[in-house]
Amino acid sequence: MKIVIIGASAAGISAAKTIKASEPDTEVVIIAKEDRVHSRCMLHKFLGHERDVKGISFIADDFFETSGITWLNNTTVIGLDTQKKTVKTHDNQDISYDKLLIASGASYFIPPIPGLRESKNVYGFRDLKDAQLLDSECNTAKNAVVIGAGLVGMDAAVAMMERGLKVTVIEMTDAVMSLQLDQKSAQAYQQRFEEHGAEFILNDKVVSVDVDEVGRGKTIHLASGKVVPADVIVIAAGVRPAFGFITGSGIDTNHAILVGDDLQTNIDDIYAAGDVTGIAGIWPNAMKQGRIAALNMLGEKRSYEDRYALKNTVNFFGLTTLSLGNINPEPEENCEIFICEDRHNYQKVVLKNGVVQGVIIQGNIGGTGFWQYLIKNKIDISGKNKDVFGLSYADFYDQDQQTGEYRYAV
Amino acid sequence: MKRIIIDREKCDGCLNCNIACISAHEEGSNFYTVNMLSPDAETRNFIKFDAQKGYLPIFCRHCDEPECVLSCMSGALEKDPLTGHVQYDESKCAACYMCVMNCPYGVLKPDKRTRTKVIKCDFCDDKVDGPSCVKACPKKAIEVKEVSL
Ligand SMILES: Cc1cc2nc3c(=O)[nH]c(=O)nc-3n(C[C@H](O)[C@H](O)[C@H](O)COP(=O)(O)OP(=O)(O)OC[C@H]3O[C@@H](n4cnc5c(N)ncnc54)[C@H](O)[C@@H]3O)c2cc1C
Ligand code: SF4
Ligand code: SF4
Q: I want to staple A165 with a disulfide (CB 3.0 to 4.6 A). Which of A15, A144, A213, B105 is the partner?
């Protein structure tokens, strides 16, 4: 059997590894646009000069050779023939498959703001290529502007601060990382960034960019009337699943490639995993989906049920935070909110009818992995009769007598 | 593979396993000389107490399908195909702590002092005489056994 995988990132590589570990004889071909495999979650370490290109790889140097996987780098998929079961590439190859995994991730977009798209010094922060272009800008630039204070924007900001640039972050909402944090936990990060020289302009948005005679965006105009100078601009206003090449293939989409719990699309033998499915947008889930899709392509019957999206960890300037689920409930949701604070920690638990809806743990996040299990599986904790902040896996302790693996007693 | 099998009924909560773990990861120290107050004194195993159930030892399972490995974005966490043990390479780790979030049993934690690495059971690097915690347990509540992978 021949399995073709589009994408060499979290989902694609995890699928390939899984296939080769369980059925080494299966032929695996990975096609990807980029030159070399890298983890985007470490792009800020590259841009900040903490690591080189090799240092942000997440696979061994000889991964493809030792695992016997064909690796087509610098190759862009431009089309799909589901009848003939072939994938078309930019250099006119038709690559046949028995099963296909689409793991093409997501890409950023530049909002249609006058002057912004035209500016030559505007970059996304998604690929190694983006980081390399930004890297050379950082050699000469003094003022950097980051549009969007989400996780990606904050990563870009921290790297450019590391490089000695004056960084201004512009954000539409009233707080940084507003999807992951509440006011209080966001404030703690904003303060640390400011102490290290960053400036934040919140509750404001870019309305236009003045482009100079050589095509570079130099002055950013905001809705409030403020004006911010820029030598380099990073746009971090969100990403969208990337699947342009499936147009006309009959694969069902709705802003993302739609998959069932087996991660198969509506077309037999075509699976999708990772950011392109729009399910989660984080690395662990892309890996897990890659693994499950791979096992299913090999004939197992695994199902991926973890469809709730919001979960993350944040670590800037040594301040760590775990954030899961619904952490800023609306009053009409009738949730109970518990807060526990001391000098080094801030914890918040959102409960509804005894079921945990969301958690923020800022400070010491050691041993907090069990929270995700509770939220994901909607476990009712009211029977525990215990202070929520005292909970741990011990409250659900159970073991498989044969294997010694843990289980959840719920 | 070898796994530390827990018989929690036997556990007295003496925490010798904690001390042994800290000492095993503090160069040059032994059970008696280990500096328990050092900012780097970190145990990789935990004993929790529950009024009904008694002592509950929480040790890394080196899971068959480890969620921590499946969440690692740097390649720092890998399950060794030969030993079955989940090993951590500090030099690769980017301290993103996705693994802390994903270990369902709350075993993993960031290091207290720098928050730049993960504190994870390494099975004492598969030393021939076995993990230090097991040797230190006076009650044989934890023992290394062979389980099928
Ligand atoms: C700066 C940044 C920081 C992040 N930090 C974190 C973090 O700390 N923790 C976390 O959990 N997540 C983080 N994320 C999110 C995480 O990186 C993604 O969820 C993850 O990379 C998704 O993996 P994927 O395999 O689905 O797709 P992607 O990583 O998007 O990879 C897509 C692959 O498909 C290829 N491809 C796409 N289209 C084509 C085509 N037409 N032809 C050929 N190849 C194609 C690409 O070249 C690439 O190899 C971060 C993201 C960014 C941008
Ligand atoms: S850290 Fe947690 S998930 Fe990883 S192997 Fe140990 S018990 Fe399993
Ligand atoms: S903290 Fe380190 S070991 Fe854990 S997931 Fe992130 S990179 Fe991997």
A: A144
Looking at all shown ligands, the one closest to residue A42's CA atom is 1
Tens digit of pLDDT for each residue in B10-27? 999 999 999 999 999 998
A393: closest chain B residue by CA:
B105
Look at residue B92 and give its three-state secondary structure: coil
Tell me which residue in B97, B107, B114 faces A365 most closely, judged by beta carbons: B97
From CA A30, how far away is CA A131, in angstroms rounded? 23
Q: Which domain holds residue A12?
A: 2-107+239-297
CB-based contact A367:A392 (threshold 8 Å): yes
Residues 84-113 of B with CB under 8 A from A: 92, 94-98, 100-110, 112
E strand spans, A109-226: 122-123, 143-147, 166-170, 199-201, 206-211, 217-222
Say yes or no: B46 contacts chain A, CB-CB below 8 A. yes
For residues A222 and A246, membership in a common domain is answered with no
Give the span between the Cα atoms of A395 and A392, in whole angstroms.
Answer: 6
The answer to whether residue A309 scores a pLDDT higher than 80 is: no
Judge if the beta carbon of residue B103 lies within 6 A of ligand 2. Answer: yes
- A264: which strand partners? A271
Alpha carbon distance A271, A16 (integer Å)? 13
Among A275, A282, A362, A406, the strongest candidate for a mutation testing the B interface, having the largest count of B CBs within 10 A, is: A406
Burial zone of B58 (CB within 10 Å; 0-12 exposed, 13-18 middle, 19+ buried): buried
Q: What is the pTM of this model?
A: 0.95
ipTM of the complex: 0.94
- Label each residue of B2-40 as H, E or C: EEEEECHHHCCCCCHHHHHHHHHCCCCCCCCCCCCCCCC
* Contact of A147 with A172, CB cutoff 8 Å: no
Number of folded domains that form chain A: 3
Chosen from B63, B80, B98, B147 to mutate, greatest number of chain A CBs within 10 A: B98
Pairing status of strand A217-222 against strand A206-211: antiparallel
Question: What's the pLDDT tens digit per position in A115-149?
Answer: 999 999 999 999 999 999 999 999 999 999 999 99
Query: Distance from B118 to chain A by nearest Cα, in Å?
Result: 9
Same domain? A277 vs A187: no
The reply to whether B71 touches chain A by the CB within 8 Å rule is yes
Q: Name residues whose C-beta falls within 8 Å of residue A305's C-beta, 6 or more positions apart in sequence.
A: A261
Alpha carbons A237 and A21: distance in angstroms, whole number: 38
Delineate the domains of chain B, giving CATH numbers in brackets: 1-59+121-149 (3.30.70.20), 63-120 (3.30.70.20)
Q: Cβ distance A72 to A31 under 8 Å?
A: yes
DSSP A261: T
